[in-house]
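[Discussion] Sanity-checking designs against the backbone

I'm trying to build intuition for which residues belong where. Below is a structure token string of 135 positions. I'd appreciate it if someone posts a full sequence so I can compare it with mine line by line.
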């Protein structure tokens, strides 16, 4: 990671989410809000469908750069703005596509900008990861 250029893509991937993914995440996180697995509850409160957990979406996004980094301990700061929900269809699921680009560099850190989309819709905004540069 010593020879970085602003604008360079450092990692990309697509993750397919299913309702099973949401149930597994609920068990791991302890977040059993029924909007994450029950269509009737989601509809009753005006949601477009069952939604992926925000923290699941955020975790998938940042995990995209871990292999490139080689050490998740190099992450010094991470933040996002949730802009749109990820609706996970009961039959077809949902695909999250993450692209990680170098957004800015200084002597000690790199800012990695994450673009996270579901279909044609950006679901996270201002998704930035600050990482320590390799020695």
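Best answer:
Here's mine. Compare freely.
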């Amino acid at each position: 990671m010593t020879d970085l250029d602003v604008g360079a893509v450092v990692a990309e991937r697509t993750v397919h989410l299913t309702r099973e993914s949401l149930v597994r995440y609920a068990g791991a996180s302890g977040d059993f809000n029924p909007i994450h697995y029950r269509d009737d509850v989601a509809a009753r409160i005006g949601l477009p469908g069952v939604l992926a957990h925000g923290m699941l979406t955020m975790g998938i996004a940042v995990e995209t750069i871990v292999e490139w980094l080689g050490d998740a301990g190099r992450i010094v700061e991470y933040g996002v703005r949730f802009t749109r929900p990820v609706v996970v269809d009961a039959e077809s699921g949902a695909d999250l596509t993450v692209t990680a680009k170098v957004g800015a560099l200084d002597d000690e850190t790199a800012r990695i900008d994450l673009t996270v989309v579901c279909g044609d819709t950006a679901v996270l905004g201002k998704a930035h990861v600050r990482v320590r540069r390799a020695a």
